[in-house]
């Protein structure tokens, strides 16, 4: 049985990733921020293992990695992320602590998740790490400015992913960044594609990844995004 570990499974894309992989017969380590999410994750089936873990807690990540010592993880999806509301002024910056919090969760923590579970992924058959980024993190595609904390954090995440793809290559690990599309999740009501469609697309691209594709920035429909 293939095994996935997915961060940010409380809601949205992360929950749907856990649901679809579990439906497809995968064992899923579902990392959630909130203990209240346990019941709905465990309701997805016996193959889903709930973990309450803040991804920005380095000691907690290392303790979880130690508890899972010896377990192979075929696919690690760094999906958890946060957003800061706009602030005042022309740049609409949030206050500096909010900006820093977003950088810590969206860009810094995923590097520590990858480091904590390097051995588990390297010991697996598929050996894939996916960082869920966004088009908003592309410098080349930035035509509208704004959203400094989110854009900067996801641009930095791109650098983390690219470096991980280089540094983990000797272990045969494939690492990519993926844009899930503009998705209508519970927290982002409004326009967008249904979450099931985004996740089906992500899973289809992930299933077709080869080591030669490592270090790329891909869309959920398989297209490529400029850095
Ligand atoms: N939705 C879109 O249109 C869209 C577009 C482009 C990219 N993305 C990316 O896709 C990913 C998922 O987005 P989404 O729309 O599904 O977002 P979401 O509904 O807000 O889900 C994000 C998840 O991450 C969790 N999380 C936040 N901080 C965490 C932490 N420190 N430790 C562990 N978990 C934490 C959240 O838990 P809580 O809810 O309890 O805080 C939530 O379950 C993100 O990386 C996002 O940037 C989304």
Describe the structure in your own words.
- There is one protein chain.
- The protein has 227 residues and is an alpha/beta fold.
- The chain has one domain (3-219): 3-Layer(aba) Sandwich (Rossmann fold).
- It has helices at 12-23, 38-42, 58-67, 96-116, 118-122, 148-167, 195-207, and strands spanning 3-7, 27-32, 48-52, 75-78, 128-132, 174-179, 183-184, 193-194, 217-219.
- Helix 3 runs parallel beside helix 4 (96-116).
- The model has no long low-confidence stretch (mean pLDDT 97).
- The site of NADP nicotinamide-adenine-dinucleotide phosphate has 27 residues, from helix 1.
CATH architecture identity: 3-Layer(aba) Sandwich
Strand order of the largest sheet: 3-2-1-4-5-6-9
Low-confidence stretches: none
Number of strands: 9
Class computed from helices, strands and strand pairing: alpha/beta
As for the CATH topology, it is Rossmann fold
Count of spatially separate domains: 1
CATH class: Alpha Beta
List the helices and strands and how they pair.
Layout (H helix, E strand, L loop, with lengths): L2 E5 L4 H12 L3 E6 L5 H5 L5 E5 L5 H10 L7 E4 L17 H21 L1 H5 L5 E5 L15 H20 L6 E6 L3 E2 L8 E2 H13 L9 E3 L8
Parallel strand pairs: 1-2, 1-4, 2-3, 4-5, 5-6, 6-9, 7-8
Helix pairs in contact: 1-7, 3-4, 4-6
Bound molecules: NADP nicotinamide-adenine-dinucleotide phosphate.
């Amino acid at each position: 049985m293939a095994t996935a570990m997915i961060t940010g499974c409380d809601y949205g894309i992360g929950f749907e990733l856990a649901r679809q992989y579990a439906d497809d017969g995968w064992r899923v380590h579902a990392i959630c921020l909130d203990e209240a999410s346990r019941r709905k994750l465990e309701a997805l089936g016996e193959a889903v293992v709930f973990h309450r873990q803040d991804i920005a807690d380095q000691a907690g990540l290392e303790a979880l990695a130690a508890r899972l010592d010896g377990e192979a993880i075929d696919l690690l999806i760094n999906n958890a992320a946060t957003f800061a509301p706009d602030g005042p002024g022309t740049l609409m910056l949030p206050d500096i602590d909010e900006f820093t919090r977003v950088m810590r969760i969206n860009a810094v923590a995923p590097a520590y998740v990858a480091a904590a579970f390097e051995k588990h992924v390297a010991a697996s058959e598929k050996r894939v790490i996916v960082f869920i980024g966004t088009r908003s993190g592309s410098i080349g595609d930035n035509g509208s400015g704004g959203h400094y904390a989110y854009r900067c954090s996801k641009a930095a995440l791109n650098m983390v992913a690219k470096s991980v793809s280089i540094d983990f290559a000797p272990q045969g690990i494939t690492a990519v960044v993926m844009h899930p599309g503009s998705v209508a999740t519970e927290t982002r009501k409004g326009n967008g594609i249904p979450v099931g469609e985004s996740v089906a697309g992500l899973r289809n691209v992930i299933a077709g990844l080869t080591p030669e594709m490592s270090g790329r920035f891909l869309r959920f429909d398989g297209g490529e995004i400029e850095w």
